[in-house]
Amino acid sequence: MTERSPQFLRSDARDNRDRILEVARATFARDGLDVTMREIARRAEVGVATLYRRFPTKEALVVEAFAEQMATCTAVLDDALADPDPWHGFCTVIEKVCVMHALDRGFTAAFVSAFPSAVDFGQARDQALRSLAELAARARETGKLRPDFVVDDLVMVFMANGGIRATSSASAVAASRRFAALLIQSFAARPGARSLPPAVRLALLEPLQG
């Protein structure tokens, strides 16, 4: 929990809080969750004490930074469940969420991390997984989703998709869409019905430093 609700903060404190969150979102998206709190404070141009006053733990900062992305993920699933064609809804979830995760390394890590004290975030994730399980069950009933699919398969997909490294955001999105199309074909009861998006040349990983 943060120290005080945003609506009760002074304007300067609220500005600091908003700047910290803005910097944290951008930093986590680009560099993942390994960035230190001290580095977040430096980039946000606030003191470390100010950062910890607003967000007593890194977990609190991560959860608050990704609240909007989690809400977007929930909305994608709600729309998919409302789709009269469950298989189409299932495919749409894979396509949209893969793009979200490809653009935001931090959200992938946050989604698959255990945050013991972040009850609301955990509940939102659990609800998203339950919605996904329901959507998959409906898609299986149509005969279009392979019968041995389980929700953990898609969690594994998001982990793998989060590892995409490209030279630009546009390339990351293009690569993620092709990856999603390959996955959809592998999940289909009768693969091969969809054509793949164009291939994308990806950036190689930097060599490990000794």
TrEMBL record:
PROSITE patterns per UniProt: HTH_TETR_1 (PS01081), HTH_TETR_2 (PS50977)
Chain ranges of the HTH tetR-type domain: 14-73
DNA-binding region, residue intervals: 36-55
Gene3D superfamilies given in the database record: Tetracycline Repressor, domain 2
Pfam families: TetR_N
Keywords noted in UniProt: DNA-binding, Transcription, Transcription regulation
PANTHER family: HTH-TYPE TRANSCRIPTIONAL REGULATOR BETI (PTHR30055:SF234), HTH-TYPE TRANSCRIPTIONAL REGULATOR RUTR (PTHR30055)
Name of this chain's protein: TetR/AcrR family transcriptional regulator
Record organism: Pseudonocardia xinjiangensis
